[in-house]
């Protein structure tokens, strides 16, 4: 049951969940939002505490209208994103990867 970043992050990307926020360094930066790697998340909840707009939450708390973000978070790491040759998978740390100039298809098309 990993944490998930939902629509409130889109085009906001406050960033408080990074750095001191996430001790697992499993929050990766896309173009429009951050994405939590579901296989690297240790479910500590630091991102949810840090986020000022309530975008980060454990998957079982994601409201019905935001459920697509759970799958979107998985696909960001398991599908080949635009401009890349292979899926991100489990890179083992967001700091080293840096900003990923892509979003999941769902987020790229999301109207806010
Ligand atoms: Fe987004 Fe909140 Fe982090 S807005 S970048 S999930 S602090």
TrEMBL record:
Its cofactor is [3Fe-4S] cluster; [4Fe-4S] cluster. GO terms for molecular function: 3 iron, 4 sulfur cluster binding; 4 iron, 4 sulfur cluster binding; electron transfer activity; metal ion binding. InterPro entries: 4Fe4S_Fe-S-bd, 4Fe4S_Fe_S_CS, 7Fe_ferredoxin, RnfB_subfamily. It holds the Pfam family Fer4. Residues 32-61 form the 4Fe-4S ferredoxin-type domain. SUPFAM superfamilies: 4Fe-4S ferredoxins. Binds 1 [3Fe-4S] cluster. Keywords: 3Fe-4S, 4Fe-4S, Electron transport, Iron, Iron-sulfur, Metal-binding, Transport. Ferredoxins are iron-sulfur proteins that transfer electrons in a wide variety of metabolic reactions. This is Ferredoxin. It comes from Parafrankia soli.
């Amino acid at each position: 049951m990993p944490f998930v970043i939902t629509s409130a992050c889109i085009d906001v990307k406050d960033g408080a969940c990074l750095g001191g926020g996430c001790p697992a360094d499993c929050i990766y930066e896309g173009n429009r939002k951050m994405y939590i790697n579901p296989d690297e998340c240790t479910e500590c909840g630091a991102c949810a505490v840090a986020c000022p707009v309530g975008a980060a939450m454990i998957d079982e708390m994601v409201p019905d209208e935001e459920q697509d973000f759970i799958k979107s978070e998985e696909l960001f790491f398991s599908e080949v994103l635009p401009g890349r040759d292979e899926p991100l998978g489990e890179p083992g740390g967001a700091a080293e990867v840096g900003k990923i100039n892509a979003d999941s298809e769902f987020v790229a098309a999301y109207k806010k």
